[in-house]
């Protein structure tokens, strides 16, 4: 085998392995989108009088918020510094994504407060507020994910971060990657 053929094969193997990081990010975003859709369905069930107790709705919200927060915290502590170091031209993009994270945190806090005060029976006056909060959260999250995917998938695919191959980083985890409820809340 020629020297250049060996290099091509090595790069191809590395590319296949690294490509998984971008794919994993997409998978996590799909999973988080599905979690939010499930939360929206639970909100609708509650306000449509289908018997879902407020505590179950709050628990569902907590699960979603914990997962999204873990993802974003993992990005900010692990992925973004690594990307900024290797691709300094993306620092503005990373700053914009951090701003989105702050906005999403605020929206999740507002939603949690609304859900904490739900009466046992659906309250039509509260339904509009809760649905607006879920809608705003969904809109910002969707826009954020699309922007992040457009700007970072190819970057992640080109990066070689050995510790990410050895131990899946928090920003690429779903609940399937967790050992149990205590691990989920990391």
TrEMBL record:
InterPro entries: Dimeric_xanthone_biosynth, Hemerythrin-like. It holds the Pfam family Hemerythrin. Residues 25-154 form the Hemerythrin-like domain. This is Hemerythrin-like domain-containing protein. It comes from Sphaerisporangium flaviroseum.
């Amino acid at each position: 085998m020629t020297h250049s053929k060996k290099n091509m094969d090595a790069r191809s193997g590395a590319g296949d392995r690294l490509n998984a990081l971008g794919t994993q990010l997409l998978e996590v975003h799909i999973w988080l989108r599905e979690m939010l859709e499930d939360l929206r369905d639970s909100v609708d069930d509650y306000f449509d009088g289908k018997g879902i107790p407020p505590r179950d709705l709050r628990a569902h919200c907590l699960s979603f918020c914990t997962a999204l927060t873990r993802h974003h915290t993992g990005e900010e502590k692990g992925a973004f510094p690594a990307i900024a170091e290797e691709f300094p031209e993306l620092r503005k993009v990373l700053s914009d994504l951090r701003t989105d994270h702050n906005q999403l945190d605020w929206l999740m806090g507002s939603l949690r407060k609304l859900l904490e005060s739900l009466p046992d029976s659906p309250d039509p006056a509260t339904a509009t507020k809760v649905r607006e909060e879920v809608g705003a959260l969904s809109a910002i999250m969707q826009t954020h994910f699309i922007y992040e995917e457009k700007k970072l998938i190819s970057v992640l695919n080109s990066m070689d971060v050995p510790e990410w191959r050895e131990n899946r980083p928090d920003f690429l985890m779903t609940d399937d990657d967790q050992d149990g409820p205590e691990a989920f809340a990391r």
